[in-house]
Amino acid sequence: MDFEKAEEIIEGEVIAEETSECIPVEMMNVLVLGNSGAGKSTLIKAISGAEVETGIGEGLTKEITPYVSKTWPIRCIDTMGLEFDKSKQRKVIKQVKQFTKNQLKEKGNDGIDAVWYCVEGTSKRIFQYNIEMMSKTIKSWKNVPVFVAITKSFSEVETEENINAVKEAFAKCKDVNLQKIIPVVAETYKINEETIVEPKGVDALCLATLDCMDEAKKISEENKNRMILEQKRFSANLLTGTSTTMGVAIGAIPIPFPDSTILVPLEIALTKGILKIYGIETKGDLIAAIVGSTTISEVARATLGAVTKVVPNLASSALNAVVAGFFVTALGESVIALSEAVCTGKIDVEKIDNVVKFVGEKLKENPVFEFVVSFFEEHPELIQGKSAKEIFGLILGAFKNSKK
Length: 404
Ligand SMILES: Nc1nc2c(ncn2[C@@H]2O[C@H](COP(=O)(O)OP(=O)(O)OP(=O)(O)O)[C@@H](O)[C@H]2O)c(=O)[nH]1
Ligand SMILES: [Mg+2]
Fold this sequence. Notes:
Elements: E1 14-15, E2 28-34, H1 40-48, E3 65-68, E4 74-78, H2 86-104, E5 114-120, H3 128-137, E6 145-151, H4 156-171, E7 177-183, E8 189-192, E9 195-197, H5 202-211, H6 221-251, H7 264-277, H8 284-291, H9 294-310, H10 316-343, H11 352-365, H12 368-378, H13 388-403
Parallel strand pairs: 1-3, 2-4, 2-5, 5-6, 6-7
Antiparallel strand pairs: 3-4, 8-9
The structure holds guanosine-5'-triphosphate and magnesium ion.
Magnesium ion binds near residues 40 and 41.
């Protein structure tokens, strides 16, 4: 397999910034179909790493758009929702055909290699009519493998029920080459101030898709493992991002958070969620040991103390909120580092003392704390009259810029 890239990239398609070095030229073209709002674009965003427009409202995606993943040798083709409306359905079919004819085939590509059909896991309804419509849309690609992504699979207890419902609905549609049904959470889902559902299933969907394609079978195990780890890191960063926002909100109370337990449920949820993303089995005492470690609270206390000294006039709730946010970010990053060390055999998760020490060291090493203190010191004028959320955003933006 040729590992050069870029040659077959189609004009006008969106490519995530840092395409991995070893992406093979043989890119798989995956057509993403499903009803409007099912979560097609959100799924693509989680796989490609590119900016994809998502959101509420009827029929957000209007044009067929390809996105090349920065991790997987997959080009996801985003489409308009397959609505009940026959004319809209015809438009989708027309757009897809035009696209494959004009763009993919011209480049000597075989067209569509697989279809991801998105079914919303929360809707509790799978209409036969929609499956038939999808089947009609893909008729031109004889026997193309179809993967059902049960999107927004937030509830673990409903997963099996949903899988069975999809199986039942597809059993009546014999001409669809159904390969696998995979529950997916593409983006972190926040249930309340301390409960979050972490992303899942995205790597399983990509792997299953690659596994059914001859060309992709030639990808070395080493490259596959790298792709899986990259995808997991992406998901874990999404979870850390949501948790950080929650940390800022929770931290906005005047009691210094390192001395109270207000942030603990969120810290537990974040740690547990990241380990789960990486498929690391843990016993309850490991998470409690990480979150309860004295090094961790010392880092939080020292940062809060240093910041308070620098800007004594800023409301303590704002200070607390900002530091709490950065603390959650740093904890997330440390647990991601731990998970990768466990997955690559560098650390044994059973050795709790080593694990706690590792996380503590990573947390202490995180440059964000020093940056926060010096930002407050150097730019007291920038924070005047701003809310904790605004100050947090300002410092985070400056920190990201400083890393570039
Ligand atoms: N938290 C969370 N929200 C999701 C997930 N998947 C989809 N959503 C939300 O569901 C809504 C619709 O998602 P989109 O990805 O825009 O749906 P779509 O299928 O592309 O919709 P159209 O472009 O209108 O056809 C958005 O508000 C998303 O944020 C998920 O895994 N987690
Ligand atoms: Mg969309």
